[in-house]
Design goal:
- By secondary structure, the chain is of the alpha/beta class.
- It has four domains: 126 residues, Response regulator (Rossmann fold, 3-Layer(aba) Sandwich), CATH 3.40.50; 128 residues, Alpha-Beta Plaits (2-Layer Sandwich); 103 residues; 113 residues, Arc Repressor Mutant, subunit A (Orthogonal Bundle), CATH 1.10.10.60.
- Helices cover 58% and strands 11% of the residues.
- The strands form two sheets. The chain has a five-stranded parallel β-sheet, sandwiched between helices. Strands 7-8-6-9-10 form a five-stranded mixed β-sheet.
- Helix 11 runs antiparallel to helix 12, helix 12 packs antiparallel against helix 15 and helix 14 runs parallel beside helix 15.
- One of its GO terms (molecular function) is DNA-binding transcription factor activity.
- It is found in: Cytoplasm.
- Its main location: cytoplasm.
- Pfam families: HTH_18, Response_reg.
């Protein structure tokens, strides 16, 4: 598909040429038209036009002047000249300016079609060749970038490769800074800028020779001209509303220094978590940080002693004290990393204690293992606070569950000791010091039956033993298991056993007699 521009001061000629072009069996895209060179230039500047069919003699700017102007502006386009003058001097001048053909007016249909088909084939072949060359060049650049990235990250390369690669851009590698940039906003979040946008800003600041992109993901890494002002890129990013954190090394000399530079810029980037208000981190920001420290274990123990104390506000306050900005900014970033690891270890220990009581609920401790998975330290502390508050909730539920278990065990023990006495729910709830209604719900939820039903079953179980193993009268058995009247005892017994107490006693004695006879026979 090609775009064509027809330039002629006579409208009927422009329309006639356009009509003929539309009838040709060619893959044409857009056909533009202009009355002279002055009208044609904006079209050529704004649109991708492959072929211009132009008259030579036109007012204001003729065809030859148009050809000269586009050549001066480096606008790549082919020309087919048409003219009513069979003057060889015009044709010769057009050929000198790069015209691909020359047709005399009135233009014959067959001559135009032959010329257009020939030029169309030439343009298509050239476009395909250009695409192939661009693809080859792009693949070569990607290979070079991959090798540079691997070398930067520690892959071993021989001296010959280093010298050869350095010669591809000797001025930059002679004096450069390594620059790491990461977007402040997450990708796909509204308003976020792509790494390619940031990269294009860098190329505008330093030029193609003063900037090389070494890595796009997980963050952008560039080698930039150290002779330029270190603040130029952050200023351009701010002007372009690209909210990115920038870490930048000092000047480096020679490609051999690239692996060490990568280590330095990675270290600078990690320290950006200590200085969330700085958009650009330089070596001067971290050179005085202390390298020796002791973790505040007493504060950590105090924090975890609050777990289960029904005081979420105090937990949040203690987190803020432990991760105090002024304290963190005194030390190397490793101090903050060790602090995070210590808290994760304590979280794991507490979770192990209550895990059997958590059911399907869990803490997301994995999300706290790497500070640098978060956009900034504030986001990490928010996640830490959330997990500690969840632990506090689980621990309170665990303590409540444990306490309820102890209370229920004592209530059951008391029932089994006192079943033969007058006993009701109020007496048992008072014994374990729990609210009447709360104890009633707790008992039914955990025992599986209400208090009255459970007490009845305990008493009847004792009664069945007495009926089977003793000669006490039924009325005596009723009193011995806590029933105030013979009638209420027999009614309860009949409801559960579907028989009277006397029937049960007779049944059990016949069973014992049968078992006794069986044993005598066996002997």
């Amino acid at each position: 598909m090609i775009n064509i521009l027809i330039v002629d001061d006579q409208k009927h000629i422009r329309d006639g040429l356009q009509a003929m072009l539309r009838q040709f069996p060619l893959q044409l895209d857009n056909i533009y038209s202009a009355a002279n060179g002055i009208e044609a230039l904006p079209i050529l500047r704004q649109h991708s036009v492959e072929l211009v069919i132009t008259d030579i003699m036109m007012p204001d700017m003729d065809g030859l002047a148009l050809m000269a102007q586009t050549k001066e502006e480096c606008i790549k386009v082919d020309y087919l000249i048409i003219s009513g003058y069979s003057d060889f001097a015009y044709a010769q001048k057009a050929i000198e300016l790069g015209a691909k053909g020359y047709l005399l007016k009135p233009v014959k249909r067959d001559d135009l079609q032959t010329a257009i088909e020939h030029l169309s084939q030439e343009i298509t072949t050239r476009q395909a060749l250009s695409r192939n060359m661009e693809h080859i060049s792009r693949r070569a650049q990607e290979t070079d970038r991959k090798e540079l990235r691997m070398f930067m990250q520690g892959a071993v390369s021989d001296e010959a490769w280093i010298l050869q690669t350095q010669q591809l851009n000797p001025e930059l590698w002679h004096n450069y800074r390594l620059c790491l940039l990461r977007e402040e906003l997450w990708i796909n979040q509204p308003g976020a800028n792509s790494a390619h946008t940031i990269e294009s800003i860098a190329y505008r600041v330093y030029g193609r020779q003063g900037c090389i992109c070494l890595q796009h993901s997980p963050y952008l890494i560039l080698a930039i001209d150290a002779a330029a002002d270190a603040g130029a890129l952050p200023a351009a990013l701010k002007l372009g509303q690209s909210d990115a954190i920038t870490a930048m090394t000092g000047p480096q000399q020679g490609l051999k220094a690239l692996p060490d530079s990568y280590t330095q810029v990675s270290e600078l980037y990690r320290h950006s978590y200590l200085f969330p208000d700085k958009r650009c981190i330089l070596p001067t920001h971290i050179e005085r940080l202390e390298q020796q420290w002791e973790l505040p274990y007493e504060k950590l123990y105090a924090l975890f002693h609050l777990i289960g104390a029904h005081n979420s506000g105090k937990i949040i306050q203690e987190i803020s004290l432990i991760f105090n900005k002024d304290v963190l900014q005194r030390y190397h970033i490793r101090y903050t990393q060790q602090l995070c690891r210590a808290i994760v270890q304590m979280l794991e220990e507490y979770e192990r204690v209550i895990r059997p009581y958590m059911g399907e609920e869990t803490l997301d401790i994995e999300c706290l293992r790497n500070l640098f998975h978060y956009p900034g330290i504030r986001d990490y502390l928010q996640a830490l606070q959330q997990q500690l508050l969840r632990l506090n909730q689980f621990y309170n539920e665990y303590k409540c569950s444990y306490r309820n278990t102890q209370d229920l065990n004592e209530a059951v023990r008391f029932i089994h000791e006192s079943y033969h006495k007058p006993l009701d729910l109020a007496m048992v709830s008072n014994h374990v010091s729990l609210n009447y209604a709360y104890f009633s719900n707790l008992f039914k939820k955990n025992i599986g039956k209400g208090f009255a039903e459970y007490l009845r079953d305990v008493r009847l179980d004792k009664a069945r033993r007495l009926l089977a193993e003793t000669d006490h009268k039924i009325v005596e058995v009723a009193a011995m298991v806590g029933y105030e009247s013979y009638k209420s005892f027999t009614r309860a017994f009949r409801d559960v056993m579907n028989m009277q107490p006397t029937e049960y006693r007779q049944q059990m004695r016949r069973k014992l007699e049968r078992e006794g006879k069986y044993q005598d026979t066996a002997l």
